[in-house]
Amino acid sequence: MIDLHTHTLFSDGELLPSELVRRAEYIGYYAIALTDHADISNLDFIIPRIIEACAKINEKKGIIALPGIEITHVHPDDITELARMARSMGARIIVVHGETIAEPVMPGTNKKALESDINILAHPGLISDEDVKLAARKGICLEISARKGHSLSNGHVAQTALKYGARLILNTDTHSPGDLLVLEKAKITAQGSGLSGDDFIKMLDVSRMLVKKALGG
Fold it and tell me: Which fold does the domain 2-214 belong to in CATH?
């Protein structure tokens, strides 16, 4: 299992980075990204600490821990600059909190995120055809979410992405230990989104590709 959207107590998660990663390793994860919620107020606080935690974890040559960030509920006009700042600070996985139907995310967030240097548009809700086409052109991954609420639009995201050839990725958006998924549960989440077994394998391949890229490969 590879999971590139999770949260620690540096935002609204429950666990220290080391405990979250250890719990993921215990249930068989190959790699995990720590992507706490951020805006201009805490970007420079979170990223260096997550980088330090991941470096220490990776010294042990077990599970791969990647430092990341989730740009969250900011004005769409600020996304490009915040993504640039996050990348310059060393974030390896940049997620943007998309226009989920479960929260009042500002309209235009999906489009601005996809115009920026990011890796994943998380739970993009009822994303438009034009934005999916943009994601396909840019090679930005659209998330199939295992998180309650955000997952309600998974079917729309999946089918629209397949229609236009956009990359899909499955993440947990973990906040609590129980949110982590074993591989079989992840497969069920994909199937519940209307995706086939082959589609699920393709999502795993996309996850591996992002990990390799994040590691400089």
Answer: TIM Barrel (3.20.20)
Rg (CA), the chain: 16
Cα separation, 49 vs 27, in Å, equals 25
Confidence class of residue 200 from pLDDT cuts 50, 70 and 90? very high
Which residue bears the tokens 């009822």?
126
CB-based contact 36:44 (threshold 8 Å): no
Residues 6+ apart with CB under 8 A from 179: 146, 147, 172, 173
For 37, phi then psi, to 5°, come to: -65, 140
The pTM of the full predicted model, rounded to 2 decimals, is 0.98
Domain spans, the chain:
2-214
Q: Amino acid letter at 82?
A: L
Angle formed by the axes of helices 17-26 and 43-58, to 10°? 40
Tokens standing for residue 47: 């990223």
- H helices within the chain, ranges in order? 17-26, 43-58, 76-89, 109-114, 129-138, 154-164, 183-192, 197-214
Percent of the chain clearing pLDDT 90 (strictly above): 100
As given in the structure block, the two tokens for residue 153 are 């639009």
The letter for the amino acid at 27 is: I
Nearest alpha carbon to residue 130 among 175, 99, 160, 93: 160
